[in-house]
UniProtKB/TrEMBL annotation:
The keyword Transport applies. Keywords: Cell inner membrane, Cell membrane, Membrane, Transmembrane, Transmembrane helix, Transport. Pfam families: DctM. One of its GO terms (molecular function) is transmembrane transporter activity. GO terms for cellular component: plasma membrane. Residues 14-211 form the TRAP C4-dicarboxylate transport system permease DctM subunit domain. It comes from the Bacteria. InterPro entries: DctM (IPR010656), TRAP_DctM (IPR004681). It is found in: Cell inner membrane. Part of the tripartite ATP-independent periplasmic (TRAP) transport system. This is C4-dicarboxylate ABC transporter. Its main location: membrane.
Length: 225
């Protein structure tokens, strides 16, 4: 039994991480606890792993240096600040006001609410790199309105989910910050490289909604004047 665990440490570790997440542990604590737990297990089972596990207790001496390296990384400091900005944007009601204003602008045309959601998604992405803040804000605000006016459920939920993920690529994106740190490039270079693709993706979303509003007009009606 111990030999089986030692040889299959990686899939067992992954399965335990999924278990921790499913029972409701926060991601940060689940990752830390899972890593430490299987480090201890791996050290004890290393002699039984036929050389596949190379762990020893002195490796723990590197943990303080890893902690300090992350805490002193100036690039990664942007992540909590952008996350905080996204929470402020969501809780203050600014996203709701923005969506309401753009919805009034595009509402009279067919598919107008879908256009409004895409534009607001792009603007929220350019304000905060937090995907969850964008999707939650637009989902809570726009989905009931779209369903109330007869939008197809699949189109409404798809537009909200797709436009919310624009925060992954349109600067300031938290993913780009992490990539810049890992690749050793400047964040500005990553932002320059992702800006045009992000705008192109936004245009493709708008084009898709435009074509769909022509082919299936009943699925996204215009708002009554």
């Amino acid at each position: 039994m111990m030999e089986f665990i030692a040889v299959n440490m990686a899939p067992i570790m992954f399965a335990s991480l999924v278990f921790f997440l499913l029972i409701g542990y926060p991601v940060a604590f689940a990752l830390a606890a899972n890593g430490l737990l299987f480090f201890f297990v791996g050290v004890e089972l290393a002699p039984l792993s036929n050389g596949t596990i190379n762990l020893s207790w002195p490796l723990l001496n590197a943990m303080p240096e890893r902690f300090w390296g992350v805490l002193s990384n100036e690039t990664l400091l942007a992540i909590p600040f952008f996350t905080f900005m996204g929470i402020v944007l969501e809780r203050s009601g600014m996203a709701e006001d923005l969506l309401d204003t753009i919805g009034q602008l595009f509402g009279p045309i067919r598919g107008g609410l879908a256009y409004a959601v895409i534009f607001v998604g792009a603007l929220l992405a350019a304000t905060t790199g937090v995907v969850a803040a964008s999707v939650i804000a637009m989902g809570l605000i726009s989905l009931p309105i779209m369903l109330r006016y007869g939008y197809d459920r699949r189109i409404a939920s798809g537009v909200i989910a797709a436009s919310g993920t624009l925060a992954q690529i349109i600067p300031p994106s938290l993913v780009l910050i992490v990539l810049a740190d890992q690749l050793g490039r400047s964040v500005g270079d990553m932002y320059k490289g992702a800006l045009i693709p992000g705008l192109v993706l936004t245009g493709l979303y708008i084009g898709y909604v435009m074509v769909l509003s022509i082919l299936r007009p009943n699925s996204m009606p215009a708002l009554p004047k």
